[in-house]
Amino acid sequence: MSFENIFNHKHQIKESANARVNLIGEHTDYTGGYVMPTLLGFKNTIKLSKNNEKEFVVYSEHFKEKKIFNDFIKSKDNEWADYIKGCLFVFFEEYKKIKLEYFNIYISSNIPLERGISSSSALCVSTLKALKSYFNAQISEKHLAVLAKKVEYDYIGVSGGIMDQMISSIGIYGKAFFLDCKNLKFELINFPANWKFCLIDSKVQRNLRSSSYNERFAELKIAEKDLNVEHLGSVKVSDFLISKFSNTVVASRAKHVIFENDRVLQAKESILNNKILKFGKLMNESHESYSNDFEASTSDVDEIVKNSIKCGAVGARLTGGGFGGFTVSLIKKDQFLDWYKKIIQLYSPDKIFEV
Ligand code: GLA
């Protein structure tokens, strides 16, 4: 079913936003630290036109479902359409001078859902981009990311940082996106051409994901209180060694974040100096810390990471919020075929995605 089939006319606006894979820097965004994701080819596309019946009609190609509403009240059971409602709500709240209009909206996406590659942020960023285009509104890419975060954090009510929205709004395909989440300053960095990243899908433990993410979020907020700092991102590795925490669990979570921030800075230096083996080593250390100190991995994921390295990757780690989803591996291009031939002996080709 296309936009034309559903609405019987052509769309006026078409906007897209891409998913991302985080290369290094996990749970460091909402603690005022550093992250380094890169865009993926997967994207969410929004087609939009004016609706003259004073209602919003939204169709999702993925769910093959149409929702009709004329208010911005969130549903009780977190429907997919709430993300669109949230974008409309945040947009019209922010730009009160813009007169409310109603729309037909068509969502299509090839982003695998619930795998830690930010499908929801791509949905929000592309929807806000479509509204921006329709009204020809002056909104910077950075502010659009801030609004997209408002949708997820304030309207939908999920904990999270700003990494996904920032890269989805501002990132450039093929470049690493180094972001300082404290002040939203970013750098787009070229990755040496003779290397590539590859994703391997693991089993997803859906229910565990959001509750465990929130648990880690809360533990890190306790760590910030313990140290009397606004952000763990301002704590140096040397300070960690002399810090006291409420308990050993909080100390381990904080350790991951504090050392991870340092790893992101080293990772950035290593790309700039073309030291890609060092980058791979940092990815491996990041995974070890994510798995042992942060306890955000699963045995299936640890196995994939180990196997990918055995097959020839120089670095591999779990990417995203944790508890399943995609792993990302770094492989030298001239060794890619060899790695691929070996890895498909262990995992089916439909679980493997080249970046
Ligand atoms: C999710 C969140 C991000 C970030 C990562 C973990 O993807 O949306 O803001 O916190 O988890 O690094």
Describe this structure in words.
With 355 residues, the protein is of the alpha+beta class. It folds into two domains: 3-189, Ribosomal Protein S5, domain 2, CATH 3.30.230; 192-354, Alpha-Beta Plaits, CATH 3.30.70. Helices cover 42% and strands 24% of the residues. The protein contains eleven helices and eleven strands. It has helices at residues 3-7, 81-94, 119-135, 141-156, 163-170, 206-227, 237-240, 248-272, 276-292, 299-310, 336-343; strands at residues 13-24, 34-50, 56-60, 65-69, 103-109, 175-180, 185-190, 195-204, 315-318, 324-332, 352-354. The strands form two sheets. Strands 1, 2, 3, 4, 5, 6 and 7 form a seven-stranded mixed sheet that branches. The chain has a four-stranded antiparallel sheet with strand order 9-10-8-11. 45% of the residues are buried. The model has no long low-confidence stretch (mean pLDDT 96). The structure holds alpha-D-galactopyranose (GLA).
Task: Give the key terms.
alpha+beta, 355 residues, 2 domains, Ribosomal Protein S5, domain 2, binds alpha-D-galactopyranose, 11 strands, globular
